[in-house]
Design a protein that fits this description.
single chain; alpha/beta; 7-stranded mixed sheet; globular
Length: about 375
């Protein structure tokens, strides 16, 4: 198969679809891999490294779409890229369509098949491609939260870990999935007072056992959320419905009860966010203030660490890409059944039920 790796068009995105190691494997498998010049520079990868791995370098992203069938990228395509998609294309990327109806409608018109990394879910519930980015975002949420708690960065001036004789900062994490557990681990390691909130009692039991009751676990109810939010110095939202729009769990009224200079980090903003006051921001301009509370709502948080993020994602996406390239998508789905759930759009129809439900569009099953 002919495979294309374009340079990300979003100015705020530094990751790249594949490293030279992944390209080399696909070339070894007998594929032709086209890489746009400069695609990996922001990740510290030179064009020469791709060439030495067997890639064919091209000058423009237009050439990538012209030559390749399988397009591997990180972020959902911009309008200028969507216009280049044709029915024979397979787009393989993070799409997060449930919060982006306009993009979804534009992709439907192309006739291309669109596979979303985030809705590939194994039988045991593991999300093999979303999990690496969730781990990065969870750890990062505490780091950036601590940074913006500094007085000179707009925060109240409280150190999360405190010092002897001074109370520690209070961190509240909504959601105890992969991102939530990563945030909890980081906050606990920094010495903060941590509260985890979730609707899954098994996850809460796990956390209670793992941390030997040294963190607070609460079942997710409006009352518990309201009380925890009012006491939080750092509030982190990691709630996820794979493929669906994130529910709004924290209203503006709750936010108004927080101390001035406290910080919110909405990891779930890609899927719409779980705070009423959330609006998507960029790494270049990551924060804004509502009612004295600093909001950090960057849509591609992991893009701040492109080396870690790119390699981590490649470790998960490569096996699926190899099967698609060698056997075609239909047969690849028989080898990896979870890949079927990753197909969000096919034959001008939405083929992911949660995306369809979130956007009020018709759902049609994959026609294999």
């Amino acid at each position: 198969m002919k495979i294309g790796i374009p340079k990300e068009k979003n100015n705020d995105e530094s990751r790249v679809g594949l490293t030279p190691a992944g390209v080399g494997q696909l070339v070894l498998d007998g594929n032709e891999v086209y890489v746009q010049k400069g695609a990996g520079l922001a990740t510290g990868i030179t064009d020469e490294e791709y060439i030495s791995s067997g890639a064919i370098m091209v000058d423009t992203f237009e050439e990538i779409y012209e030559k390749a069938t399988l397009i591997i990228k990180v972020e959902k395509p911009l309008e200028c890229e969507i216009k280049l998609l044709k029915p024979h294309h397979i787009l393989y990327a993070y799409l997060h369509l449930a919060a982006h109806k306009k993009t979804t409608l534009e992709l439907l018109k192309t006739g291309a098949t669109c596979i979303a990394f985030e809705t590939i879910i194994q039988e045991d519930g593991v999300k093999p491609i979303l999990s690496p980015m969730s781990e990065v975002a969870g750890r990062m949420a505490v780091q950036v939260g601590s940074f913006y708690l500094q007085k000179n960065n707009g925060g109240m001036g409280k150190l999360l870990g405190g010092v002897p004789g001074v109370e520690r900062g209070k961190v509240v994490v909504l959601g105890a999935g992969v991102a939530g557990q990563s945030a909890i681990k980081t906050a606990f390691g920094m010495g903060a007072e941590v509260t985890a909130i979730d609707i899954d009692m098994n996850k809460l039991r796990y956390l209670d056992d793992n941390y030997k009751s040294q963190i607070t676990t609460l079942y997710s109810t409006p009352r518990n959320i309201e009380k925890a939010v009012s006491e939080a110095d750092l509030l982190i939202g990691t709630v996820l419905i794979p493929g669906g729009k994130t529910p709004c769990l924290v209203t503006k009224k709750y936010i108004n009860t927080m101390q001035k200079g406290s910080v919110i980090v909405d990891v779930a903003i890609d899927q719409g966010g779980c705070f009423e006051t959330s609006k998507i921001t960029t790494l270049e301009n990551p924060t804004y203030v509502v009612d004295g509370v600093v909001h950090y709502c960057v849509g591609n948080m992991a893009g701040a660490y492109p080396i870690t993020a790119t390699v981590s994602v490649e470790n998960s996406i490569l096996k699926y890409a190899r099967e698609i390239a060698s056997k075609g998508l239909k047969r690849a789905c028989t080898v990896y059944p979870e890949l079927l759930g990753g197909i969000n759009i096919m034959n001008e129809r939405v083929t992911c039920r949660k995306v369809a439900d979130s956007l009020g569009l018709d759902y049609v099953g994959v026609g294999f």
